[in-house]
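Q: Hi! First time asking for a complex rather than a single chain. Here are the components, and I think there are three in total. Is that enough to go on?
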Amino acid sequence: MPELAEVEFYRKQWAPGFGRRVVGVEVHAGARVFRGVPVARMVEELKGSVLQEGLAKGKQILFRFSGGRWLGVHLGMTGELATEGEKFASGKHDHLILRQRGRTLVFRDPRMFGRIRFSSGIGPPEWWEEMAPGVFERGFTVQRLAEVLQRCGRMPLKALLLRQEFFPGIGNWMADEILWRCGWAPFRRAGTLDLGEVRRLWREIRLVARVALARIGKDWGELPKGWLFHCRWKDGGRCPRTGGALVRQQVGGRTTCWSPQWQKVT
DNA sequence: TACAATGTTTTAAG
DNA sequence: CCTTAAAACATTGT
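A: Yes, that's all I need. Here is the structure of the assembled complex.
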């Protein structure tokens, strides 16, 4: 489910455990979410350490523990984080459980497209440090956006917006929302935007991300009325702007909801 | 039954 | 080596 705003929401779900010691760790050791992780070592090192803080960047979450331990969480399609009571009995999709005095921190992921990472070291792990600049960081400039659009000029805009190495945290619903606001068909080629349109795209990316974070990221609140989000999920929806029929079709390998009456190729 | 689900990663083609 | 598209991954719900 999660894009950058949902990821921020889930990061905060473990906040009750910040500053507190982990007294027990339970795992589904062979689960796909631990691919590449030395699970036994992770369990040993997390046990007794203090969860200091959690950070979110794009769709990634990084938890810092005492003793230079770092736990990376990617939620994939169905992952979630939750804080449960001390006596919580884990279910079959609860692959990682951190027990604290008074509460239980849970990572759950039925489909297991998510991923856990673990490392030790003074600073954050390499994969975190090398992530592309987020859409609110200094590095996310109109110029850089123009370069990306040129370089991947043959790609449909929709497919390009989903590329995490350029747009960390943008996912399926946000990409559709952004293109709908811009008024462009999702299969329009990236290389066809002029400079004014690049600026427009840059603005709408940041607006959608900012509002999503302020609402969903805060407390999973409602998005503003009139957003495509509210009518995108099922067949038969109507464009909030024109009242015309919305269409759902595959673009860039994902189901894409758009308004042909409003979103054009030109 | 068959298909679709707010996501990556791998594989292959050009 | 680069860009782009498609399949694969695993589970649940309609």
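A: The first strand of chain A starts at residue 20 and ends at 21. Let me know if you'd like any chain examined more closely.
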